[in-house]
Every structure is written in structure tokens, then in C-alpha cells.
Design a protein that fits this description.
Shape: globular
CATH architecture: Alpha-Beta Complex
Radius of gyration: 15 Å
Structural class: alpha+beta
CATH superfamily: endopeptidase domain like (from Nostoc punctiforme)
Number of strands: 7
Strand order of the largest sheet: 6-4-3-2-1-5-7
Largest sheet: 7 strands, antiparallel
Number of helices: 6
CATH topology: endopeptidase fold (from Nostoc punctiforme)
Length: about 160
């Protein structure tokens, strides 16, 4: 795993994850961003925080590691620095409101609490990269499905080195 890689996550036992997958018509319900070879930054319900990759390397999750094409090392660095500044507590109720807006009123979302995929999209947007060309979606509207469709190389096999 390298800095800038994105981990797509399918939580097998989480009912909220199931709702997210159905609402976004995706196999994936969560994403996290590699800040180095062992740690990820992610937006969860209550916080934006760092965690070990090992958190997701067990039977409760199906994962896929991707490496985006056409994103420079400088863009990754700038984007990760931006989202790292956002670390810390946030209000759970605001997060739930954002998820509900995504489910029921997608076109109404303008600005809200960053979701996991929105966090990565926002960081890369700050560095000049967009998952959806021509700004058809703003970063707050990007879903794990949008990220899974980005031009990227599947590097999941590299996770075997981490799990040893």
C-alpha cells in the first residue's frame, strides 16, 4: 500500500452499510485513504480520524485497494494534508442528515458534512483532481461507487504484505 491509495470497503454485518450500498447502488459502502504504508484516514459517523489498515483486514470486511491514475504525488500530498487538517470530532446528527439527504434528495445537496467518499473527493479537489469531470457532482455528492469507477489500478494484492 502506498500513500494516496484508496481502500474500498464492503462491511458484511453493518445495517447502516447496507443502507448506504442500496442508496448509492454500489457494492461498496465505505472508503478510506492511505496516508502511508500502514495507516488510513477516514470519515466515520462521529469523526475524521486515522486508523491502521489492519482494522479492515479480517472476515467482517471485503476490501479492494486501488491506485488512481492521472494523480501526481504532489496532488496526493496536497490532498492528504488538506484532509488531515480536518481530523477531529464532529456532530453525529449532521452526518446522519447528510446521509439522509443523499438517499432522498440527491440534487438538493450543496454543502454538508463530508462523507467518507466526500472527504477523499474534497481533498483531491483541493489539489486539482475531480472524480466526476465537468463538475457534474460536487465533492459532497461523491459516493463509494463513483470512486470505484475512477480510472485506477487494482493493487489489492499489496495488502498481503501489510497483513503479515
Amino acid at each position: 500500500m502506498k500513500k494516496g491509495d484508496i481502500l474500498l470497503i464492503h462491511s458484511k454485518l453493518d445495517p447502516i452499510a447496507w443502507i448506504i450500498r442500496k442508496a448509492s447502488n454500489s457494492h461498496w459502502n465505505h472508503v478510506a485513504w492511505a496516508v502511508d504504508t500502514h495507516f488510513l484516514i477516514e470519515a466515520r459517523g462521529r469523526a475524521i480520524d486515522k486508523c491502521s489498515i489492519k482494522k479492515y483486514l479480517n472476515w467482517r470486511y471485503e476490501v479492494k485497494l486501488i491506485r488512481l491514475k492521472k494523480v501526481t504525488k504532489d496532488q496526493f500530498k496536497e490532498g492528504i494534508e488538506y484532509v488531515s487538517q480536518l481530523q477531529g470530532e464532529r456532530k453525529y446528527l449532521s452526518y446522519l442528515k447528510t446521509i439522509l439527504r443523499m438517499v432522498f434528495m440527491e440534487d438538493e445537496i450543496r454543502y454538508g458534512v463530508l462523507t467518507c467518499s466526500g472527504l477523499i473527493a474534497r481533498g483531491l479537489e483541493e489539489a486539482g483532481f475531480s472524480f466526476i469531470p465537468n463538475h457534474k457532482k460536487i465533492s459532497y455528492q461523491i459516493t463509494p461507487e463513483d470512486i470505484s469507477k475512477a480510472k485506477a489500478r487494482n493493487v489489492t494484492s499489496e495488502l498481503k504484505k501489510v497483513s503479515l
